[in-house]
Amino acid sequence: MKEYEEKYKQIFRYLSLGMSQNEISKLLSTSRNTIRKIKAVTDSIRLSWEDASKMTNEEFVHTIFPKNKNWYYVKKKCQLNRNFFYLTSTFEKC
User: Fold this and answer.
1) CA–CA dist 60, 53 (Å, integer)
2) Per-residue confidence (pLDDT) for residue 87, from 0 to 100
3) Which end of the chain has fewer CB atoms surrounding its CB within 10 Å, N or C?
4) Is residue 84 part of a domain?
5) Contacts of 81 (CB under 8 A, 6+ apart)
6) What is the dihedral angle through the alpha carbons of 36, 37, 42, 43, rounded to the nearest 10 degrees?
């Protein structure tokens, strides 16, 4: 798991720098699905690179993928956030 911990943090760093998922995938020899998952989770918990850079690799992984998390609840919350974002952005256009 240690090698993945470092890679996950590198992925987040490159995402924070504005690199595309394809660029990161080629650079780190990682699947785009892995990159998408990390992006989705870090976006949903609103983690900034400033905060993540202060964490160890292990702390970072446990922050984005906690061991004792109710994933059904997390999925529902993310869905609600997406719906709320859609509604607010649609409302702002009116």
Assistant:
1) 9
2) 44
3) C
4) no
5) 44
6) 60
Q: Give the domain extent around 51.
A: 3-68
pLDDT confidence tier of residue 9, bands split at 50, 70 and 90: very high
* Alpha-carbon gap, residue 30 to 40, rounded angstroms: 16
Q: Which residue has the tokens 């900034």?
A: 48
* The two structure tokens encoding residue 71: 């994933």
Tokens representing residue 17 in the block: 């720098």
- Residue 41 within a domain: yes
Tokens found for residue 78: 């993310």
With beta carbons less than 8 A apart as the criterion, state whether 77 and 26 touch.
Answer: no
Give me 84's structure tokens: 């709320």
For residue 20, being part of any structural domain is answered with: yes
The predicted-structure confidence for 76-88, as pLDDT tens digits, reads as follows: 556 655 555 544 4
